[in-house]
Design a protein that fits this description.
The complex is a heterodimer. By secondary structure, chain A is mainly α. Chain A contains 14 helices and three strands. Helix content of chain A is about 65%, strand content about 5%. In chain A, strand 2 and strand 3 form a beta hairpin. In chain A, helix 3 crosses helix 9 and helix 6 packs across helix 10. Chain A is globular and about 55 Å long. Chain B is α+β, with helices and mostly antiparallel strands. Classes of the chains: A mainly alpha, B alpha+beta.
């Protein structure tokens, strides 16, 4: 009886202790803090893929509060098929949660590359294209902006310094102020990216690099790389002198077109263009 | 030597307490079934968003919890094992009295809050930060973003599309 009591007590104590260890393993606050600070100070890049994804979601949510989604399922599926066919041949075939393409229900001519891989193209832009290859050219250009992280790179350097401070020193000292501070920085980052992709536009260097990359991607995918200067010409003709929308964020200057034509001209011609144009016309009209 | 009755009672109580804690635990335990409430949740090979997902779990699916580590649950879904982030599941229920045995013993509720904040410090922009942003900006259309995230072409359909158009696979 005496031994049974001892064993019972020992068993109980062991189970309580074991459970305590499980609880500690589930919520290792102090060790997470240490790891977090260490990661923040050791990381060599300013943002990881999952953070980029969350910035992209918020930027997309902001754009989608202005433009509704176009409810044409057939067109949406088609745009996703063309988009994925080019994205897989880009310099960044995989993102954190993958590329997604959606059509915005507006006649404005525009396209937005949200960080992380959500690409929004307007119905006006789709209808400006005359063929699948031209649609692929627009999407390849936007994919290049995602691949080159042009949106994320527009977050001001000063803001990153603040993020590091919040994630490093402050986290080590106290937990309380970190959440609020990071939310403020997150909001600021969304503003920076939104202004770049939807208001002010990318730098000329970023645009030219996206053009070059799009030409390479189109060639690799089997599309006609000459479709990019073609669609830019169409856009210029459609809204000559316009200073808003895509004409402000993706200006098609004479220099840009000349460079593109030279780059595209060196690529090998695409096959089966007629088949692709027919399926484009069957869906877009 | 004769063991006093109060010691016998204490030993028994300790054993019952230990068993109760193992059975009830502070969170979802091994073998528990949870429902996925978010659409298209990626199943990761490790408890980290950085890895390439090994599969997708649809909204409404029920998964069996194998184990838990921080904000991540190792689950079994139709024979496929991987890690799901806790955002895939409903928020844990709070008891009506606000008291729980693990909480009383280990201070679980207080640690939970701290864990979230520390996770923010460690990871930067996370679902928790996004949640704060959504509360502050109700005009941001996250419902549409979630709809866009369901637009995924099935690999076989994409392959057929590429082949039909004479494109490079």
């Amino acid at each position: 009886m005496k031994h049974r009591m001892k064993w019972l007590a020992l068993l109980g104590a062991a189970l309580v202790l074991a459970q305590g260890c499980v609880a500690a393993a589930v919520l290792p606050a102090a060790s997470i803090a240490a790891t977090g600070v260490s990661k923040a100070t050791q990381a060599s890049r300013p943002i990881n893929d999952s953070e980029e994804y969350y910035v992209g979601r918020a930027v997309a949510a902001r754009i989608l509060s202005k433009y509704p989604l176009y409810g044409n399922v057939e067109l949406t599926t088609y745009v996703n098929e063309v988009g994925e066919a080019v994205a897989r041949k880009s310099s960044r075939p995989q993102t954190f949660r993958g590329y997604r393409f959606a059509v915005l229900d507006t006649q404005e001519i525009n396209a937005f590359a949200c960080p992380g891989g959500t690409i929004l193209i307007t119905r006006g832009m789709v209808e400006t294209c005359a063929s699948e290859d031209q649609l692929a050219a627009v999407l390849a250009h936007e994919v290049a902006h995602v691949a080159n992280k042009d949106g994320i790179n527009s977050i001001s350097k000063a803001r990153w310094t603040e993020v590091w401070t919040a994630m490093g020193a402050e986290a080590a000292r106290q937990y309380g102020g970190v959440a609020g501070n990071l939310l403020t920085l997150f909001e600021g980052s969304i503003d920076d990216v939104f202004k770049t992709i939807a208001v002010n536009g990318y730098s000329r260097t970023a645009e030219e690099k996206a053009d070059q990359d799009a030409v390479t991607t189109l060639s690799r995918a089997g599309y006609d790389p000459g479709a990019l200067p073609q669609v830019l010409n169409k856009m210029m003709a459609k809204e000559k002198g316009a200073s808003s929308g895509i004409f402000k964020t993706h200006p098609a200057t004479g220099d840009r077109l000349a460079k593109l034509k030279a780059e595209a001209g060196e690529a090998s011609p695409a096959k089966d263009e007629k088949v692709r144009t027919n399926r484009f016309k069957a869906i877009v009209g | 030597m004769r063991i006093p009755i109060c010691c016998k009672k204490a030993a028994g109580l300790l054993a019952v307490l230990g068993l109760a804690l193992v059975l009830l635990g502070p969170g979802p335990g091994r073998g528990e079934t949870l429902e996925v409430i978010q659409p298209n949740q990626s199943l990761y090979p490790d408890p980290d968003f950085a890895g390439a997902p090994v599969g997708v779990v649809p909204q409404g699916a029920r998964v069996q919890v194998v184990r838990q580590a921080g904000d991540w649950y190792k689950v079994d879904y139709q024979g496929m094992q991987g890690w799901l982030h806790r955002q895939a599941f409903p928020a844990p229920k709070q008891s009506g009295s606000g008291l729980s045995l693990p909480g009383l013993l280990f201070g679980a509720p207080a640690k939970e809050t701290t864990s979230d904040e520390v996770a923010l410090a460690g990871k930067g922009f996370t679902p928790e930060v996004e949640s704060g942003y959504r509360q502050k900006h109700p005009e941001a259309n996250f419902a549409a973003v979630e709809k866009v995230e369901t637009f995924k072409v099935k690999p076989a359909k994409l392959d057929a599309f590429i082949k039909e158009g004479g494109l490079n696979p």
